[in-house]
Write a structure and sequence with these properties.
Blueprint: H1 2-42, E1 46-52, E2 54-56, E3 62-77, E4 82-87, E5 94-95, E6 100-104, H2 107-135, H3 141-167, E7 169-171, E8 176-181, E9 188-189, E10 194-210, E11 223-228, E12 231-243, E13 253-260, E14 272-277, E15 285-289, E16 301-306, E17 309-314, E18 316-321, E19 324-329, E20 336-340, E21 351-353
Helix pairs in contact: 2-3
């Protein structure tokens, strides 16, 4: 009997405990729902940041950097094999085009020239004799033709000997400064051996790159201000002489500028230079931050705040200028563009502005 009573008591305790737990859970659920309703009421709007749409003149002036390169540079090489007899210029010397800068031993070449001249004169004398003999029938037409051919062959060898002797005097093929001398008197060279490196820095080139937004405003012959990092107070005048028809791997367009050096040739090849592209007389346009676009500029969608509500607008973007984007159509000056928080927005979402 006692055992039955204990079982009944245990069952009653369990039932009471279950009831108590159920009541606690019910109270917790009510409190949670009340908190949810409070949060929902509190967060009825989406917090966003805004920017007023304005019309402004775009700053398209561009500063592009590069290194100066010589307009002309040449590695002067020997055309004939031989021993260098004289070296007439040194590193740093200025040479004119056509100036003799070194000579190769000419003893054998002079002998060859003398022999070629003798053979040519002999062939001419023989031809005169054959022509006179042909008039009287002393020689045949074939013998006369052979004599004429001998004169032509002798003249060709004479011309070649004169060229060979001329090649013994090594001449500069461009005007410039000797940047490197590779030979000394007594050096033995073969055809193709490097003798001198000549650099012309009276005119230099500066190669830079610009992006597609600047390309429409550049043209061949346009004057460009150029500066060198080592001469911060000096400005040099440059002129665009090349604009690449194709962008490089970074989607920039190579541009080459020609600069006339000053009288002292202060600019040197390899120096660091800066080109300043000036784009004046630009008209004011509507511009908004890049962050105003939903996802990216390619989406062509922008949210604007209108009486506390987000409105989705489709716009026509134009030029991208750094962190600003030109808007050709779809927005008016004075509109309030939403520049952050768009991920939580759909058309008609209530918004609140945060600073």
């Amino acid at each position: 009997m006692k055992k039955i009573i204990r079982i009944i008591v245990t069952i009653v305790v369990i039932i009471i405990s279950i009831g108590a737990i159920a009541k606690v859970l019910s109270n917790n659920k009510k409190k949670s729902e009340e908190k949810t309703q409070i949060v929902a009421q509190t967060n009825a709007t989406v917090a966003v940041r805004i920017d007023t749409v304005t019309r402004a003149v775009p700053d398209l002036d561009v500063i592009a950097n590069g290194n100066f390169a010589p307009a002309q540079e040449l590695s002067l090489a020997a055309e004939k094999a031989g021993r260098i007899v004289n070296v007439l210029v040194d590193e740093g010397s200025f040479v004119q085009k056509g100036q003799t800068v070194a000579t190769i031993r000419v003893d054998q070449l002079s002998v060859d020239l003398q022999n070629a001249e003798t053979n040519y004169q002999t062939a001419r004398t023989d031809l005169e004799r054959y022509e006179n003999a042909f008039k009287t029938g002393g020689v045949t037409q074939q013998q006369l033709d052979n004599a004429r051919q001998s004169v032509n062959n002798a003249k060709t060898k004479l011309d070649q000997s004169r060229i060979n002797l001329g090649d013994a005097s090594i001449r500069a093929t461009i005007s410039g400064i000797v940047n490197k001398r590779h030979i000394e008197p007594g050096s033995v060279v073969s055809a193709g051996t490097a003798l001198f490196d000549i650099v012309n820095v009276s005119t230099l080139k500066l190669k830079v790159t610009v992006n597609e937004a600047q390309i429409p405003y550049l043209k061949l012959g346009k004057q460009v201000q150029v500066k060198a990092s080592v001469f911060p107070d000096k400005t040099f005048s440059g002129k665009i002489n090349f604009i690449a028809p194709k962008a490089d791997e970074a989607l920039n367009f190579p541009v080459e500028i020609t600069i006339t050096n000053n009288a002292a040739n202060q600019l040197k090849a390899g120096m660091y230079g800066t080109a300043v592209f000036d784009f004046p007389n630009q008209s004011a346009v509507i511009m908004i931050p890049r962050t105003a676009f939903v996802g990216s500029v390619n989406s062509k969608q922008v949210f604007v705040a209108d009486n506390g509500v987000a409105r989705l607008k489709t716009v026509t973007p134009g030029r991208v200028m750094g962190e600003k984007v030109e808007v050709l159509d779809g927005l008016t000056e004075g509109a309030i563009a939403i520049i952050s928080g768009q991920i939580n927005l759909v058309d008609g979402t209530p918004v609140s502005v945060i600073q």
